[in-house]
Each structure stands twice: as C-alpha cells, then as structure tokens.
Design a protein that fits this description.
The protein is an alpha/beta fold and 335 residues long. It has two domains: 91 residues, no CATH class; 202 residues, von Willebrand factor, type A domain (Rossmann fold, 3-Layer(aba) Sandwich), CATH 3.40.50.410. The protein contains ten helices and eleven strands. Helix 7 links the parallel strand 6 and strand 7. Helix 4 packs antiparallel against helix 5. The radius of gyration is 34 Å and the shape is elongated. The two termini are 41 Å apart.
Length: 335
C-alpha cells in the first residue's frame, strides 16, 4: 500500500511534522461536537423507533474527510518529487556464453541433489553478479543448440537456465559441438572481451566437431575459454541405463572427465581449466572467473525529478469539496 512513496522524496520534509497535529485536532473536534450536539435524554424511544438514522451515520464521515484533506495538503506543502534515474554505461562490458552439459551423467548424485541442479544454481548466482554483461546460454549432450541468445535481460536468461533438464537432447557428450555453438553466438560481437564458460562432467564421445577444432575457431574470434570439470573423484551414483518406461536406473559408475582435453582447450585461448569436486569448489570457481574477468565500466547516473505536489493538492481539494457539499446540503443542520 506504500508503493506510491517508493521513489518519492520531499524537498521540505520538516513540514510533515505538522501531521502530528492530527490527533490534537481530533480531540478538539470531539469536544466541540459534544458542545454543539448535546445528548437528549428521553424516557422512551417508542416515538422515534421508525426514524431512519442514515444521516447520523453519514455525518460520521465528515471528520474523516476533513482529516484526509489536512493530510494531503500537508504532504503537498512538503513538496513531494518523483525521482527518475537513468544509467548510461560508457564502456562496453563482457559478452559471456555459458555452456551447460545435459548428458544423463549430470544426474549423478555426488552433488546434492545432483550435478545439474547444483550447476544451475551456481550459474544463476554468477549471472546475478554480472549485471552489465550480455550473457547467452548454450546446452549440449549428444547434440547442441542455443537455449538463449546474448541478452542483458537476465531474468529471462535465468528462467531458461532453471528449466534445463537432462533428456531433452540425444544422450552423449559432444563438447566440441557445445563450444562451437557458443562461439557462433560470440563471433560477431564487438565487445572488448568475449568468454565461454563450458561446464561438463565427461569426455567427448559424440558430435561432428572435435573440441580442439572448436577451440581453434574460438581463438580466431578472440574468444577466451574457461572449462570446468564437475564431478567427485573415484565413483559416484549415476544413471547407468533406463528401464522400459524411460526412468533412469542408478548405480555406481567411475567419474571420467577428460581433464587433459579441457586444459588444452582453455590454454589454446589463454583461458583456464578448473575442477569442481563439490558444490563449494564450484562456487569458488565461478567466483574466481568473476574476478578474472572484471572490466572497468563507467556508469553515469542522471537523476531527474518530477513535481508531484499537485496530485496531493488535487486529492485534498476533492475531499474538501465532498465534505463541503455534504455538510451544507443533505447533512446541513439548523443552528
């Protein structure tokens, strides 16, 4: 109910202290009312039992209307202004492509509840920190596609991210395809810095574009690659097959991440490879990338104000007019 005052500032806020007079005015009105309209004691109400009391009930709103008039006039005297802000970004930010593995192994439960859900949440937190950057989202399994193009509308981007699930693509791990899809979104960008953050939990076993070929293409377009291998060491409870109704059957399976390949891909573009073995280390990796890819952005904030006192004057006049009409027409009393 107070949203109207969310962006309101007052030029003369000290005048608002006059609102404290309202209780005193209420007491004054109460005592004046008792003097003007004394109580009439009658032995019986039988003679007036059918007399309508609507005028008496309606008269009770007169002091309320007068109080509202007083409140809005005081607010108008305080000279409320609506603050309008504009942000002008002078320097270009960073264009970032997030690439997420959606192979069935991302359902492994060495992260709680699984690798995919944790990866989505940590990536979402990372997006919140990059408010001035354009970010896209690509996904891959046995094939790859762009889930969201480069955008500064991070709310929409996070909705796409939250909706990711395993099984929407043919199973497999086409790392080269995922990287190539992301680079294709960045190649025409004029941003000063372009990066890909590719997260996977396996080794390349699908797709018609080799990971190193995709890395070379990224280098040609000045795209830096950060790769993240996600998964514990040893064995983890992961999908090993499916039953007749399509549900995954879980069992212990070795964690196989081609760290050598991911390292070479990153080094090809002066990027870096990271290994996340739990949620905390994955959060730290995104934090490290956030620090590595800081760009100085000059933000000029322009404040504009619009006078809003006339709205309160208008409301006060309406309540005053209604109170005046009621008092001297249908609720008029004979002195």
């Amino acid at each position: 109910m107070f949203d109207i005052f969310k962006n309101i500032t007052f030029v003369n806020p000290g005048i608002l202290i006059l609102l404290l007079l309202l209780p005193l005015l209420g007491l004054w009105y109460f005592f004046q009312y008792k003097k003007r309209y004394p109580t009439l004691t009658m032995p019986s109400l039988e003679a007036v039992k059918d007399v309508s009391a609507w005028r008496g009930k309606l008269r009770a709103i007169l002091p309320i209307l007068r109080a509202l008039t007083f409140i809005f006039f005081i607010i108008a005297l305080a000279r409320p202004q609506l603050t309008l802000k504009e942000e002008e970004i002078k320097a270009e930010g960073i264009d970032i492509a997030l690439v997420m593995d959606l192979s069935s192994s991302m359902l492994a439960q060495d992260f709680k509840p699984d690798r995919l859900e944790v990866s989505k949440q940590v990536a979402s937190d990372f997006i919140d920190k990059r408010q001035h950057d354009r970010i896209s989202l690509a996904v891959f399994a046995g094939e790859a596609f762009t889930q969201c193009p480069l955008t500064t509308d991070h709310r929409v981007l996070k909705e796409f991210l939250a909706g990711l699930q395993c099984g929407i693509l043919e199973d497999g791990t086409a790392i080269g395809m995922g990287l190539a899809t992301a680079v294709n979104r960045l190649k025409d960008s004029e941003a000063k810095s372009k990066i890909v953050i590719l997260l996977t939990d396996g080794d390349n076993n699908a797709g018609y574009i080799q990971p190193m070929t995709a890395a070379e293409i990224a280098k040609e377009f000045d795209v830096k690659i950060y790769t993240i291998g996600v998964g514990s060491r040893g064995k983890a409870l992961a999908p090993i097959s499916r039953n007749s109704n399509g549900q995954y059957i879980f069992g212990l399976a070795p964690v196989k991440i081609d760290e050598q390949l991911l390292t070479k891909m990153s080094e090809q573009t002066n990027g870096k490879y990271f290994r996340a073995t739990d949620e905390q280390s994955l959060e730290q990796i995104y934090s490290d990338i956030d620090q590595l890819e800081k760009t100085e952005i000059e933000v000029t904030t322009i404040k504009r104000y619009s006078e809003e006192f006339y709205r309160f004057v208008f409301l006060g006049l309406i309540f005053l007019l209604v109170e005046f009409l009621l008092r001297y027409t249908i609720l008029r009393t004979i002195p």
